[in-house]
Design goal:
Elements (H helix, E strand, L loop, with lengths): L12 E5 L3 H4 L1 H14 L2 E5 L5 H4 L3 E3 L6 H14 L5 H7 L23 E2 L9 E2 L26 H8 L5 H8 L3 H12 L8 E5 L1 H4 L4 H14 L9 E4 L6 H6 L6 E2 L3 E2 L8 H9 L13 H13 L25 H9 L13 H4 L3 H7 L1
Helix pairs in contact: 4-7, 4-8, 4-10, 14-16
């Protein structure tokens, strides 16, 4: 979540997609309704079902389940075509001006694929991507090149514009089943938050994530909010209304297989010392090479100091050597864990506050694994 509950009242438009917040998250709905009462804020609900939340909406958008990507694609095209995006925000606080390698090709050029795809290579049945053509163009010092006019055909903004050009209202309507006039009404309302004095909030739940393309759905929401300048401003953001097993707490507290607290990557066996760990993250192409995450080394050292206090000093790499290191190629994610239990590779499980026999994917296999 990018917002706290009370901040929800500051949004001029709230879009709830794939959530029945009125019944399932009343604490959230309370603050949304306060904003509607005090500031005349609007509520937009996108859902295949007409729920009690939809009944409270200023605009309700029905759509076929699983067509959210097309819905968001149309929203992005609408914002760009009508120049309703927050241009100053896009230029200064996103990677939209950044130039991508000249030999990058998108699905509109390669019949639905991105450049670098090799089918059926190695253990991946579907194939894999070589992402070298997706990299930023850089200067002699390794800094990414930018075009703040957003006109260079290889800047991220223009690539995005070409990619989503196919999502006109008629196409989106044919995919989602949503009437064309209803799409136009919803897009016009939500794109109004691209104005410098407006903000919009997107809230979602399992209706967005429990899909084979759930991750893409969430990424689309992030792209919409960055395009409209709706992140990091009062009332604006992307907020997950969690549905089970305290997913948010597990994430925030660093209980996932690949993270320590603060959304920091857990060290692997390749990271033999602190310098190696940090250099792999901050070097060219690293996760901390640009933007806000250039502060990553400070965050990580701060975490080590929080854990080991005055014993964590520069002389002993801030006690980095105390951290356990996972095998670099190891997979300890949920599905692989249960596959290993099923294969007899794991002989014990300590389970806290979850019910995978009912709530996990392929519950029959997971019961047999247990």
């Amino acid at each position: 979540m990018t917002n706290h509950w009370v901040d929800l009242k500051n949004a001029d438009v709230t879009m709830i997609n794939g959530s029945n917040a009125a019944e399932n998250h009343p604490a959230a709905m309370m603050w949304i309704n306060q904003g509607r009462k005090e500031r005349k804020a609007k509520l937009l609900v996108v859902d295949p079902r007409f729920t009690r939340t939809a009944a409270k909406a200023d605009v309700y958008v029905p759509l076929r389940s699983g067509t959210d990507i097309a819905f968001y694609g149309g929203l992005i095209k609408y914002a760009i075509d009508n120049k309703l995006y927050h241009e100053e925000y896009v230029v200064h606080f996103t990677n939209a001006p950044t130039l991508i390698a000249a030999d990058f090709k998108g699905p509109e050029d390669l019949d639905g694929l991105f450049s670098g795809f090799t089918p059926n290579e190695g253990d991946d049945y579907f194939g894999k991507y070589d992402r070298s053509t997706w990299a930023y163009q850089t200067d002699a010092e390794g800094k990414a090149l930018r075009d703040e006019t957003l006109q260079d055909p290889q800047c991220v903004f223009q690539i995005m514009k070409r990619h989503y050009s196919r999502y006109d209202l008629d196409t989106v309507s044919s995919i989602t089943g949503t009437p064309r006039d209803k799409l136009d009404e919803a897009y016009k309302l939500y794109c109004s938050t691209g104005a410098p004095d407006k903000t919009g909030n997107i809230m979602y739940a399992m209706g967005q994530t429990q899909h084979t393309v759930g991750s893409q759905n969430v990424r689309m929401m992030g792209m919409v909010q960055l395009l409209l300048g709706n992140t990091g401003r009062p009332g604006g953001g992307v907020n997950a209304l969690r549905g089970e097993s305290n997913v948010q707490g597990s994430t925030d507290q660093g209980l996932l297989a690949h993270l320590v607290p603060g959304y920091l990557a857990i060290p692997s066996s390749k990271d033999v010392d602190l310098e190696t760990y940090l250099s792999l993250k901050t070097g060219p192409g690293g996760a901390w090479a640009s933007g806000y995450w250039t502060n990553g080394p400070k965050f990580f050292v701060s975490l080590l100091k929080a854990w080991w206090g005055e014993k964590a000093t520069a002389d002993n790499e801030f006690a980095y050597h105390y951290l356990p290191k996972v095998e670099s190629a190891a997979n300890h994610y949920w599905i692989k864990l249960f596959e290993d239990m099923y294969a007899g590779k794991i002989e014990g499980l300590w389970l806290l506050g979850q019910n995978p026999a009912v709530g996990g994917p392929n519950a029959k296999l997971e019961r047999e694994a247990l």
